[in-house]
């Protein structure tokens, strides 16, 4: 399954296009199946309807746990580094992780969980989060992990959309110097969620919480019950390859976040295949991905990908700047990290603290570096290369999405020649195409277009939960017979791909995906706001910042106080991650005669480029543009 030279890459790529079914069957043969498939692939992008390995039976946790026990029971599966560096770190071997997953799977069963149930997980980055995820998979329950930075309202929306019956959470969380009240947030969310019959609460910070009789139970008490029952094993539920494994919500250009659905067989194969190849993982290596399990990066490259390959995956509870900006490098030295997978926004932020935090650190164990989530600017790429990798570690700039399940366009570490700012080449099995606005393929090199994929891969999303039509219109209806990514892309003269950013109304703020419509809806909930428009602007650290134009005809308080109120509103409705960085009060928005907001103009002004606003003659009230230009925030 592992490609180790560029010739092999080219050969594998060619085979994957000419005989895709044979190619993927060979990859899938590296996994443990309870029963093999009847068909490798059945598909059409019209409905869409994509089935991989149909008829096959498996459980992903047997691939992530049981199959490693024979030879690698004592290999560390998870190394956990706490937020506070003086607290003890933890190591869970494959045997220990297996036992804990089985134990908690039995807790879930004791609490009424069944195959097919949807279970919401809202937890800090502690090993029990990975255990909870795997325990769901063990019994065939569908997990829906919600990132800790989302508000009660966002959690409630997600719980209702998926009709979850169980929530797994913790009393509190430590992140940097903050104590976060997680259970309180869940309590607020659950006021709106009658479907939830049980919450299981892990003790982490032992902050005061309200435990509701009949609904809330402590994780530790439930474990004790399982222990007294004296049955530590939990047989892995036999799943169909196309049974749902998880739902993960992500933002789009319209409306509420959608629940991207991944299924057991294809997702497992794709997460494992990409992990093994992109990072060229070798047994014994320590691999550290700095993402949160609340995002797809954490699902695929902290939990499922690495564990399916028997790797040692390091989980970090805290943030890169606590107790100081040298924390990531301290972790590398402390745990002898060999592979580091992180985000451009983290690198840019750490660059800003200067080299003092790097210069005395022992980074000699590092062999491979990865970047994910947003375009990496050349400055950050070189900083990583020079000061972290000491020009000895290949950097893999990995492009992919929640919807793709795993990495799509990327260098293979040490195999593909890299180029700063470029995700380089598609992995074998991935067929990218660039198209113009009419969906016509743009062939050849040295061209720009909208990035689509023309053939399915095992990790492709199958649907958006509860709304298949939305899946069709969002991804498969823009261009006939193509999966549309929403990204713009350049293919240079060498055939290398460079992602240029979203072409829809989705922002990428510190690697987090945020829909402008979602932020607008939140701002518009503020009692004085009549309407608003949100666009992105270049931000030195976050990549993109959130710029809001807001119409308030009658301002009751000072503009500063009103700004704070609006920020509070967005925090409450979506979460702190969506807070506007800049709020400009305007008397009106530039609209066409048909009432459409001209975002192009607002984007240019937010970017500070007012020289050439293009054609404004179709505007209802051109004077408003002048006013907005005058009041633009630097
Ligand atoms: C969007 C997907 C992929 C996991 C984390 C984000 C942007 C992602 C890169 C990259 C340039 C990138 C794209 C994509 N993106 N990786 N290496 N270079 N842009 O997952 O939240 O689903 O966001 O992130 O715009 O569409 P996500």
How many β-strands, per DSSP?
30
Average predicted confidence as pLDDT:
97
Note the beta-strand portion.
15-25%
Largest sheet: 8 strands, mixed
Shape: globular
Number of helices: 18
User: Level of helix content?
Assistant: 25-40%
Which structural class matches the secondary elements? alpha/beta
Distinct ligand kinds: 5'-O-[(S)-butoxy(hydroxy)phosphoryl]adenosine
**What is the terminal-to-terminal distance?**
51 Å
Task: Give the low-confidence spans.
Answer: none
Query: What's the Cα radius of gyration?
Result: 24 Å
Strand order, sheet with most strands? 12-11-8-6-7-14-15-23
Write a structural description.
It is a single chain. The protein is an alpha/beta fold and 634 residues long. Helices cover 32% and strands 23% of the residues. An eight-stranded mixed sheet has the order 12-11-8-6-7-14-15-23, sandwiched between helices. Strands 5-4-17-16-18-19-20 form a seven-stranded mixed sheet, sandwiched between helices. Strands 21-22-24-25 form a four-stranded antiparallel sheet. The longest helix has 17 residues. The protein is globular, with a radius of gyration of 24 Å. The model has no long low-confidence stretch (mean pLDDT 97). Bound molecules: 5'-O-[(S)-butoxy(hydroxy)phosphoryl]adenosine (WT7). The site of 5'-O-[(S)-butoxy(hydroxy)phosphoryl]adenosine (WT7) has 22 residues, from helix 10, strand 20, strand 24 and strand 25. It comes from Mucilaginibacter roseus. This is Acetate--CoA ligase. Pfam families: ACAS_N (PF16177), AMP-binding (PF00501), AMP-binding_C (PF13193).
């Amino acid at each position: 399954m592992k490609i180790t030279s560029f010739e092999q890459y080219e050969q594998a790529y060619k085979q994957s296009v000419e005989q895709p079914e044979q190619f993927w069957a060979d990859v899938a043969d590296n996994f443990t199946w309870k029963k093999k498939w009847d068909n490798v692939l059945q598909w059409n992008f019209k409905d869409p309807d994509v089935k991989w390995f149909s008829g096959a039976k498996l459980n992903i946790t047997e691939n992530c746990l049981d199959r490693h026990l024979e030879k690698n029971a004592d290999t560390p599966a998870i190394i956990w580094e706490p937020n506070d560096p003086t607290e003890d770190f933890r190591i869970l071997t494959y045997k220990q992780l297996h036992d804990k997953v089985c134990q908690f799977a039995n807790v879930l069963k004791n609490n009424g969980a069944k195959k097919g149930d949807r279970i919401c997980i809202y937890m800090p980055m502690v090993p029990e989060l990975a255990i909870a995820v795997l325990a769901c998979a063990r019994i065939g329950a569908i997990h829906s992990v919600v990132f800790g930075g989302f508000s009660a309202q966002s959690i409630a929306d997600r719980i209702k959309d998926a009709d979850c019956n169980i929530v797994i959470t913790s009393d509190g969380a430590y992140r940097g110097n903050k104590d976060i009240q997680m259970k309180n947030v869940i309590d607020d969310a659950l006021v709106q969620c009658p479907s939830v019959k049980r919450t299981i609460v892990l003790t982490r910070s032992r902050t005061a919480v309200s435990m509701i009789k009949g609904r809330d139970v402590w994780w530790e008490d439930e474990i004790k019950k399982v222990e007294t029952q004296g049955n530590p094993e939990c047989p892995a539920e036999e799943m169909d390859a196309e049974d749902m494994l998880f739902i993960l919500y992500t933002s789009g250009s319209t409306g509420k976040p959608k629940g991207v659905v991944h299924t057991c067989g294809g997702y497992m194969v794709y997460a494992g295949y990409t992990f093994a190849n992109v990072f060229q993982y070798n047994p014994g290596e320590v691999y550290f991905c700095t993402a949160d399990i609340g995002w797809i990066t954490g699902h695929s490259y902290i939990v499922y990908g690495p564990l399916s390959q028997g790797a040692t995956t390091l989980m970090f509870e805290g943030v890169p700047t606590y107790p100081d900006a040298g924390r990531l490098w301290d972790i590398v030295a402390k745990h002898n990290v060999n592979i580091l997978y992180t985000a451009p926004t983290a690198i840019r932020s750490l660059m800003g603290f200067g080299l003092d935090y790097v210069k005395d650190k022992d980074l000699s164990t590092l062999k491979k570096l990865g970047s994910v989530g947003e375009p990496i600017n050349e400055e950050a790429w070189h900083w990583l290369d020079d000061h972290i990798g000491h020009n000895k570690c290949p950097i893999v700039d990995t492009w992919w999405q929640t919807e793709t399940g795993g990495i799509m366009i990327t260098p293979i570490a040490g195999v593909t020649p890299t180029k700063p700012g470029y995700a380089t080449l598609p992995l074998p099995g991935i067929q990218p195409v660039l198209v113009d606005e009419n969906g016509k393929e743009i062939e050849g090199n040295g061209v720009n277009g909208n990035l689509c994929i023309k053939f399915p891969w095992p990790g492709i999303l199958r649907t958006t939960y509860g709304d298949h039509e939305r899946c069709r219109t969002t991804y498969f209806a823009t261009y006939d017979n193509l999966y549309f990514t929403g990204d713009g892309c350049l293919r240079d003269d060498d055939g290398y791909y460079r992602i240029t950013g979203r072409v829809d109304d989705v922002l990428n703020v510190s690697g987090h995906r945020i829909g402008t419509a979602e932020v607008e809806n939140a701002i518009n909930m503020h009692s004085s706001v009549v309407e608003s428009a949100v666009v992105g602007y270049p931000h030195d650290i976050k990549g993109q910042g959130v710029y809001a134009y807001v119409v308030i005809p009658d301002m009751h308080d000072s503009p500063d106080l009103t700004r704070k109120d609006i920020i509070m509103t967005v925090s409450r409705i979506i979460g702190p991650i969506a807070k506007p960085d800049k709020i400009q009060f305007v008397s009106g928005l530039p609209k066409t005669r048909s009432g459409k907001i001209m975002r192009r103009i607002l984007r240019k002004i937010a970017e500070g480029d007012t020289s050439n606003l293009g054609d404004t003659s179709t505007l209802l009230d051109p004077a408003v543009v002048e006013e907005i230009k005058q009041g633009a925030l630097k």
